[in-house]
Amino acid sequence: MSNLRAELADAVDQAEWDWLKQHVQRDVVVVVAEGLDLIDVGVAIANDNVTSIQHWIGEQLIAKPSVEQMAVWNSDRTKRFHALIVQPYVLVQEISA
Question: Which of 3, 65, 89, 92 could crosslink 81 through cysteines, CB 3.0-4.6 Å?
Fold first, then answer.
């Protein structure tokens, strides 16, 4: 199980908004707040760590993209994200300009 963290770290990639749109339409994109470790979230989801996941949802640290966020991303063609696929989800975190 200790390899999971390393595997997920290796799987983190950069993505453009256009690439993510299809996943948003399938309702599988989860936005991870800046300051929260993308790998930690991936490990928690892969291990079905309900306690951590519910805490982050409650603190609004992970959420589905809001209409406002998507409007901003649609207007900024240069927006990039760190992306991590943890089936069935695509975890994304905005890359600060």
Answer: 92
